[in-house]
Amino acid sequence: MFKSLSDTPKPSDLDVLRTALQTALDTAAEEERPGLRRALGLVEDFVPGVGPDGVARTRTLLAAAGIDPRTAEVKAVREVRRAHPGLSLQEAVDLVRLLVAQAG
């Protein structure tokens, strides 16, 4: 969707921002949630290896495996890591939680 503003994104800065937005989303009032989901999605566009394509692929992967990340987070994380062995545990957890947040 958006291209990075620099050639060298700083993932650690983006992770801090992503975590802050996720925390805000987790505790937000219902009327604030759409805007926070949108903001979180924009940040995800800049995070290397995740982006909108990675989220869509992960959603498809979990659907094909018959795993609902809202009710089976541990199974979802395990499946994501099995399919993408390069992801750290924290990255897989973050990705699964992003899917749940986007699903509302």
In short:
This protein is mainly α.
The radius of gyration over CA amounts to 13 Å
Mean residue pLDDT = 78
Question: What portion of the residues fall into strands of 2 or more residues?
Answer: under 5%
Q: Give the low-confidence spans.
A: 1-10
Number of helices: 5
What characteristic shape results from the CA principal axes?
Answer: globular
Distance between the termini: 21 Å
What percentage of residues falls in helices of 4 or more residues?
Answer: 55-70%
- Label the structural class: mainly alpha
Number of strands: 0
Largest sheet, in brief, is: none
Output the helix-strand order. HHHHH
SSE layout and pairing:
Elements: H1 11-27, H2 33-46, H3 51-64, H4 73-83, H5 89-103
Structure description:
This protein has helices spanning 11-27, 33-46, 51-64, 73-83, 89-103. It is mainly alpha-helical.
State the main characteristics.
single chain, 104 residues, mainly alpha, disordered N terminus
